[in-house]
## 1
Amino acid sequence: MATVIDTARTRAKGVVRHKTRRALLFWCFLAPSLLIFLLYRIIPVVWNLVLSFQYWSPLKAAEPAGFDHYEDLLYDEVFWQALWNTLIVIASAPLGIAVALGLALLVNADIRGRDVYRTIIFLSYPLMTVAVAIIWRWMFDERVGLINYTARLLDLVDKPIPFLNSFTWALPSVIVANTWQILGFYMIILLTGLQNIPHELHEAAAIDGAGAVHRFRRITLPLLRPSLFLAFVIGMLNSITSFDLVYVMTGGGPGRATEILVTYIYKLGFVQTKFDDAAAVTVVFFALLLATTWAANRLAGGNVGAAETE
Amino acid sequence: MNRYPRWPIHFALLLAGFVMLVPFYWVLKTSVSGENIYAYPPSILPARANLFYYVDVWYAIPFARYFLNSVAVSAIAVAGNVVFNAMAGYALSHGFRGKNVVLVLFLSCMMVPFQATIIPAYLITGKLGLLDSWLGLALPQCSTIICIFVFKASFDAVPRSLIDAARIDGLSEWRIIWHIMMPLSKAAIATNVILAFIWSWNNFLWPLIMTRSADMQTLPLGLARFLSYQEDTTGALYAFCVMVLAPGLLLFLLAQKEFIRGLTSGATKG
Amino acid sequence: MKRRSLVKAALAGASTLAAPAYLRAQSTRKLSILTWNIADQQELFKTEFADFKAANPGVEIEWLDKKGPDLPAFYQTQIVAGTPPDIVDLQGAIWVDYAAKGGLVDLTPYLQKEPDVAKRFNADYLNGWVYQGKTYLLPFYVAKTLLYYNKTMFKEAGLAGPPQSFGELLGFAEKMAKAEKTGFLTLNFDWLYWPLFKMNGVELLSPDGKKAAFNTPPAIDALAQLAKATASGGINKISWTGRWVEPNGAFASGTVGMLHAHSASYFFVKGQGPWINDQTLGAAQVPGFWSTPTNHGFAISKGSKNPDLAWSFIKYMTSDKCASAFFKTRSVLTANTVADTEGLATLEKTEPLAASVLRTQTEHTDKLTGNWPLPYDAELKDAFWPEIQNAALGRKDAKTALSDAERVVNRLLARKA
């Protein structure tokens, strides 16, 4: 009797030791990535946080500022406009993802020439943003741009639409250009996710008489959840990564119509040399994104939307 | 068995392809003709097509040296990404104490705009003594959170039974990653390679801030030469952009076959 | 000339005598120079740097060049890291911000010790680099606004020559506008559009710089007229939203009657517009002869470890010899009067059209506007410009736009007081 309990106990201890050893190993696996993020993301965020409570410029020593910068933000019309524009950019992400999902499914289908289609759709992503910005600027031009020219040829409008000169059309135009560029990125993430779905599941369901739409809703979509969550996060982060496009295409104008938080941060820091104000905006922006991701994670079912495959 | 009409798919894809191609065609067209894109009416075909701008790009800047720098930096970044991200993705596809903290941490690390990190990143790189070096250029990009999650999703899809069997067989975790997980995650590897390459290849702001010596400049920095006001012809600019685009495109073409599904043998999945 | 070479020889002789002892004390002295978007001058600078090094043995020169929008980001990171380039080439009004924060070396003592240096330059241009009585930069090259006009479009519309008043300018623009053609375009960065207001008697700030002074009936009237002309197509909307490629590209395509831009536009436009020659392009002053300069100057960073050496370097780079060479290769005005007069004389014979453009840069330098030596110039622009856009693009009427702008600007000035 005693020996059975003893062996069970020692085995249990062994399992526990094994488990902790494995956990330690996992931490070691995480270490290189964690180190890089620590150096290049976490420490800079802390630097910004500290800076947002100080008065500082590259040539003067720091003085405490309390909540002054945050107070300034409350009364800063530009900040609120940039915040609003950023929210619009974030809200437009699902549209792009939906289109990309459709394209990914099409491109993944068993048809001839899908390699060619795939490449064409992806082409826009590796193209340098400067080229994208200048070309789309031209395409949206009121007088000589391609879009207005085509619209006039096809008699769709009688007056040219001032896309980038209009306070209402500027931001949507930038979003269109941005979506054009990022479609390839979405597609690649979704394609990778589609690869994780075993072919056999679809075959089995088809044998059982399930139609394509049914299969999509019951098999594809749930198993695609981690990729969709990722795509949404990417879409949200687009409001950060589209800095180059917005800056080169409109510079935030006309007025503040296309000013987003990240262009405002850059302007405050590097054009107006107000790094402390830029730091405050960074902190607010960071909090905003964190909140949105947390909400999205909750909606996606927690655990970063990981699908259970058991 | 799955008989569905192909032509609507082709139609939809052709439409999508057209929309994606039109701006790109204009970039290509201007790079061979150098015409003013603000000319009216817009011309569909290039007038006086020539490859002069491409030659111009090659000779106007130390293209070979810049190319080498970009290749070195991207190679380091891609290698780092594949190795570190696979390790991290594997760890995250298991449960362990503090895993959720790490997940949240990783996600929040993404929420930092690069523009706000320039100065501290520069100071840190300086302290590490990596300014003006390939490693210094590549290090911030040697691991990216999106790609970690790509690996994680791929590893999550591998049946537990397989891993348990491997453990019983006495394989160490390290070997499990490389001998079991990775061969089953070709698409994830391909994605990592493509994305890590594009991000490091096209990166402009970080090399701009970080490099001082002329022979450490990467390719996108050469762009400045074409935006100087005396030579600001979009012809040269676009020729340059097309040349910068080429390697990323080539890589994608090579990695294409990894996205073709259905080649998994029965014993490994399901 | 002879005295100069004698002095130079003496200096060279003296330095060679001093060199061995100096060299024993310190292996090399390094000068780093950061320029603003003139990477194409590689050949010229290589020879000039070599000459300087020959005259100052043991000196190494590191040359960095960054494009305009990138330079401030680079420069400020270097300042924070404690390794700012010794010499920096700055454009527009950004220098005031750095000077006010103590980032630039005050050049006044150097100039007082060597009065010959200041005499080289056009006094008005040199004065543009003074803040609170101290000079912080030496002029490198200048570019101020002028009116380019498309002679072909003028002929077609039956117009004899460039407009002589604000009213005529708008009237001409109206006449030339039809279908895809517009009559007038202006650049808008660095306050380049300001002469349009100045010619109507509008001031931006009060003389003491503490209050906004632009909310006046003449300003409202001018802005309203600009808005009206924009709405009708006389003024191309790109004036209010474009930066560099779009406005210049539009003019170069031959569909715009007049372009209000600085001399730097000439070369870009010529490159993009094969129709341009002295029969088809005219260069004139705007009505009232006001112009906004956006000049380049050399400054010395406070963190420089060799300020005296840096001084001799910028003295050398702006000397008659170097300035003349620069004029020849870049066809740009240098503010060095000897170089400019010689250069223009030669240019008249080789490229009369370019010469006519550059000649406008030497005229009426007493009527420079659009430059306010304020450290918060960027913030001021950011506060004022969006309201001008609002009015010009028809979102607000001129009266509301200017009062809103006045409110924001006054609030900004009050905070800075």
Note: Chain C touches chain A through 35 residues (CB under 8 Å).
## 2
Amino acid sequence: MTIFTLAIKYLRGRFVASTLTAVSIALGVSLVVASVLLARGIREGFIAGATDYNLVVGAKGSPTQLVLGVVFRMDLATPNIPYTVYEDLLRDPRVEAAVPIGVGDAYRGFRYVASNSAYFAAYPWRRKAFTLAAGRFFADNSPNEPSYEAVLGAEAARSTGLQIGDRFYEGEEMAEYPLAVVGILRPTGSADDRAIFFSLPSYWGMNEVARAMVVKPLTAVLVRPKRMSDLPSLHREINVTPDTQAVLPSGVLLTIFNMMAVAEDVLKMILVTVGVIVLLYVFVSMYSATIERRREIATMRALGARRASVLTIILAESAALATVGGLGGIVGGHVIAYLAGALLGSSGLVTNPLRFDVFEPAVLGGVIVLGTLAGLLPAVLAYRTEVAENLAPLS
Amino acid sequence: MHRCPNPTRNSRKLGTWLAAVFLAVNVSLAALAGTEEVPRLTFAQLVDAIRADSEVTETIKSYNGKEVAIQGFIVPTGPPDLSFFLLSRVSALGNYCCEAPVGQDETVYVYTAKEVNITYDPLRIFRVVGVFEAGMRSDASYGPSLFRMRDARVEEALGAKLLKTADFPNAAAKP
């Protein structure tokens, strides 16, 4: 019988205690793995969902609200700006592309996004591509003849169950202006999957106030300049006007990442504490096991086992516990991240919670080393067990 | 008597330790100085390098393909992972309290090599080291540009770091 089979036999001898120790290691590790995966998933979700346009122009106010509302559709829409802002930007010689956007209501929580065909246009510089799974895009129509045609994002279509040709509206007063589904988009991995798109004239036509307005309202304009180096001057010119602000969306996201980093630091401290508690638990478990086993160890020694063998057995036991717990924790962490990702899925922020990461072998290695170290003191205790003392009759 | 600790030997030991620490510090300083050897370009040099026909001078072109360091503000015009951004003499997000925004003559298009691991701050100067490229060229993703840096890495500007340490002597020396 080798030392390792002996160690495994000992562990199975204390089956309940060993299982609980391994489970507590697994829980600690899965907490660490799940937190790291989710934090990274949220960050990557933001990066993947970022707009290809470099400047977002909207009403004065919070830049964060403007970007979260217009690009990620998470915050409330900012106040309106006049349509002339878009026309001026379109005429600006420094601007290569400008896209008007109106956001406001929603159907069953899926936001209405009014724009024109430029929103879906494929430019060579665009990373994002819009393709239709079914139907066609809505036509750009004149303000007087709104078509009330809608194109649904993949998730919006799946969740609402709307099909091409279906008509829908939300709220009784909108029954007069039902939207007809003419197209369904393929998934893009961004907030656009949960949006319902239609033309700006339809957007204005649905709203009593906007119908009567001479200069129609917009929420924001997305801008791509011909030269990136013109962005600072565009940004400034728009920001010094009393009504509009220009925002670099990446700047807003980087600021959000900085805030998330503070929360992640707090999380790291909590995780370290959890790690220490788990290690203490392993230590206590191995320690009490060794105390209980003094007599057996003394017997083994009396039968000729070397001190080093006894030391190795205890270390092998804690290493085995740490390995099983660590592997279980990595699997568990992915499961937790997947479940949490599915739970947060409606906001569409978490991406790839199942992807294996390079940090995980490091976590597993660390757990095995630290878990083995937690068994070191009990092992030394076993090493120093005096044969004569512990073989004395139990009175 | 001979069991008493020998003060001279102890102090000699201490001296050896001190010498070792001193040496280690010197070596690390030398390593720091090693990164300083990358030639530094300033925005003033870039402006001076532009001729009337909006071409750039041969002097600045001599840096083409070489690694240089430029210090400036990060204007995050590319994706939020900072794989591309503009490095400018003026911060784009400081409300331009003191200076008007600058154009392409004082803007460097930076393409980073790998993940940028900095705490982004629009009001802070960063030191960017990368392979320099001068001359008008157009890029499918980011349009025409005059000055570029490729395979770039972003560091905190050393001056700013020293100031921070001096201001907060109790702060942990965390980069």
Note: Residues 34 and 140 of chain B are 36 Å apart (CA to CA).
